[in-house]
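Hey, does this match?
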Amino acid sequence: MSNPAEKPEVVQLPAEPVSVPSASSRRAALQRVREARDKLTSTSGTRPAFDAELLRQYAQTRLSASYVVLLLVVATGVLFGLWMQPIPAAAWTCGMICIHAAMIRSCRRFLAEPSTPAATRAWRTRFVVLDLLYGLCWMAILIHPVLDMVTETLMMFLMLLVIAVSSMLAANLPIAAVAATAPVAVAMALSFVMTGSLDNYILATLALAAEGYFVLLAHRLHSSTFATLEARAEKDALIGELEQAKAISDEARHRAESANVAKSRFLAQMSHELRTPLNAILGFSEVMKSEIFGPHQVAVYKEYSADIHNSGVHLLNLINEILDLSRIEAGRYELNEEAVSLVGIVADCHHLMKLRASSRGITIHEVFEQAMPRLWADERAIRQVVLNLLSNSIKFTPQGGEIWLKAGWTASGGQYLSVRDSGSGIPEDEIPVVLASFGQGSNSIKSAEQGAGLGLPIAKNLIDLHGGTFTLKSKLRIGTEVIVTFPPERVMSALAPLSEDSPPLQPETSAVSDEKRRPRHKPIMSAGTGS
């Protein structure tokens, strides 16, 4: 017979680590994609929203400086009317006023209408055309042939004034600034060059240099405004992300709270459903174990009954621990506070666990300070803390080991409890694990007596409810020590004696003698019948 075909070995390759991009890298990638998309859809190379905002600032600047421009036009028209015929000067002034009025009306309409990408492009073209007409009108008056009698210095001054005002007003729209100032500067430079003198050549060069300077200045102002808009947009985006993250965290918190409430309701319902049959199991198993109705015919049944009873007790304790932890986590654990003795509670717990420790050959030492005042605390909670700590020490201490119970004063005036054993210890990296709910260390998993991992978390939460501290120190192969402290506010110290004298129980003798010497007046009418 032929041998069956061997199955090929399937070797699973190690999974490559998946690199999860950070939040900053994702934000940067989204920023680059957004910028590329905006540049493709924008006419100026910036975001469409920035185009609209820049035009809005341009219109607002024009409106705020409307009276200044109008005053400059009227003053120039009056001044040129003295050097040339009044009719051409008046015609030029009326034309400039019409262009200025059209500019102001367009700015107001733009600010009143909602901004869309198509409308923004149309308004941008309209503003550039109006600025171009504005610059051509200034060029017409500055190169008029009748003004040859005016000195070049005055013309240069007027040109610089016009270019400066136009550049500042149109700084948020650089192409409009160029359209308003370039015709004036170029025309003045050509006018100076056509005269043919060296001085006029220099003035022409200065005119072109001034044009370049003011265009550069307008571009820098536009860049600073654009940077401000970018910073504001990034701030708004960051605020939006924070609000979105806050909304997500609030929703997650609400879900966690709802899940916690559902968990608490489930545990409360299940505890009731489990305790009802569990009480019957404990009762009947105890009856069978005690052989109340007669001995068993088979002796093994008695051992089985004892095992059933012990298992039921363990399950009941586990249910009680889960319920206590759920109430503590839900904030519904109420402390029944009263004056208790810490030393007395520790001594009672030692007495309860002494038999269990003796069966394992473990010696428990007591180191208590005498004459300690009482604590204002919940006796049941403190007793549960001590029992949990002591049972853990007994569980993880080898045979022949030792346990030390200490109780005394803290440096701040409070009281402390210390439980130290000579067990195997807990690794330092596993201390947060054992303090978490249902957390178990490596030694607990290897131990034959495994628990649910609720003793230390319950003890820590109960101490936190009292306002105290819970410290766990452990070293491998040396032992573990748990120190529990209570704040000084819970120590009921003896009251100091009163500083003021108490009033006397009987009146002084002088007061009594004065009262006797005082004459007594008989009443005018007696209530009785006697005289």
